[in-house]
Amino acid sequence: RPLPASPHDPTRGTEGSRLVAPGALRRKLVDARFGPVQTIMRESAVPFAMSMALNLDAPAMGHGRARTFTETEPVAIIEAYERLGGFPFEAPVLMDRSTEQVREHALAPASFGTLTEEQLAHPSCKVRPFTESTAMDWVWGHDLDTGVPTLVPAEIGFFQYEYRYRLNRHRARADKAAGPGRFRKFFHDSSSGCAAGASLEEAALHSLLELAERDAFLLAWHRAAPLPAVDPDTLTDPESRALVDLVRARGFDVHVLVATQDIALPIVWVLVVNRVAPFPATYSSGGSGADPNTAVRGALREVAQLVTNNAEWERADVEPMADDPWLLEELEHHLRLYTLPQNRERATAVLGGPRVTLADAFPGWPDTLRRAAGGHVKGALDHVRGLYAAAGLDRVVLVDQSTREHRDAGIAV
User: Which terminus of the chain is more exposed, N or C, with fewer CB under 10 A?
Assistant: First the structure.
């Protein structure tokens, strides 16, 4: 449907302005007694405004980062609601059907990747092997091009879904302490590609932007080849320049790397390297968006927070992971691993590429997307979908994670 796009940001609709209007979501959704958002907290240990929204049904708090707390509050609330979308509160779940039984209507589970025999046999493994005859649970999505209803594995559509409890959300949350090996999941849970917006089209667009960012970062990391680099001193965005100065003042060199791979979107990797002490050696963050300046600013905010806050772990606790990668069981472990001095060289393998300006790295952006959008969010979504197709990713299936609570708040996930 033709939703007018913001003249300032083709990835956002004009109707979204009501969501970020000062105090609007707070007045509607924040209540310490009944919720759904119990409270909004302000973080004091970061070098910018940052708010956290607490919703007890969400697996984690929502975070908002900006120049002022007025700007951060609605972002934090929206992110908390985004995380609520990770469980099928209302979505119909088709249980105990094999791929053979639903083949005509389903994506092949094997198309999402499989683990090796060695990985599956390790005690830390949290997933189970499957074949086409393995009974699974499924949820419905829709092909983004044709609108045809399509079944996807339940854990792919809703990353908080667990077979142990299925739709019994309260029991699942009460058993957070379950150790490795007790799970009966077929895929690792991942929130990559979950996004919120003022409309489903807007949420889908930001989902694709996030997926491209995560994919590009991992491809660049595993290729370990020098990437083009933007001289931080040539950045023109005032906030980005201030963040660069702050990170440098903490003793880190700043490298703004062009991480775009096969999906032709503005994607950056900000790598900071400690020049005054061996530990913590490096930190990394990624950013993406229609506007390259926004992508860089977002990535710089994340590393600025990391270098400002002291590490909440001891180097000795991380050292064993350098010798035994099987000890890495959580996403946070990867961040910690590359703070070790002995891993500095691996992290900096992407340095040494050609120097470019931000404008040369992403020529024409964001005007490229603004023109393609034709004044509508759907136009921007179609253009980004086309960039995926050009990279060989010719099928996109969208799972609507929105619930009544989302719709009541004017949020789509």
Answer: N
Using the 8-state DSSP alphabet, how is residue 286 labeled?
E
- In this structure, the number of other CB atoms found within 10 A of the CB of residue 175 comes to 12
b/e code 385-400 from CB counts within 10 Å (16+ = b)? bebbeeeebeebbbbb
pLDDT digits (tens, 9 = 90+) for 206-247: 999 999 999 999 999 999 999 999 999 999 999 999 999 999
Q: How far apart are CA 116 and CA 113, in angstroms?
A: 10
What is the number of alpha carbons within 13 Å of residue 374 lying toward its C-beta?
7
Q: Is the dihedral of CA 399, 403, 404, 405 positive or negative?
A: negative
DSSP per-residue codes, 130-180: --TTSEEEEEEEEETTT--EEEEEHHHH-TT--TTTTT-HHHHHHTTTPPT
Task: Determine contact, residues 250/311, Cβ cutoff 8 Å.
Answer: no
Q: Which two tokens stand for residue 377?
A: 């969010």
User: Length of the chain, please?
Assistant: 413
For the whole model, what pTM was predicted?
0.94
Q: Which fold has domain 210-361?
A: Double Stranded RNA Binding Domain (3.30.160)
Residue pair 289/266 in contact (Cβ under 8 Å)? The answer is yes
The DSSP secondary-structure symbol of 4 reads B
Cα(17)–Cα(22) distance, integer angstroms? 10
Between CA 318 and CA 30 the distance in angstroms is: 39
> Is the four-CA dihedral 262, 356, 342, 332 of positive or negative sign?
negative
Q: Strands 49-54, 62-66: parallel, antiparallel or unpaired by DSSP? A: antiparallel
Using one digit for the tens of pLDDT, what is the confidence trace for 379-411?
Answer: 999 999 999 999 999 999 999 999 999 999 999
Phi/psi of residue 340, nearest 5 degrees: -75, 135
Q: Strands, DSSP E only, in 177-305?
A: 229-230, 252-258, 267-274, 282-288
Question: In 266-412, where does DSSP find H-type helix?
Answer: 292-308, 315-323, 331-337, 344-347, 358-361, 367-373, 377-390, 404-409
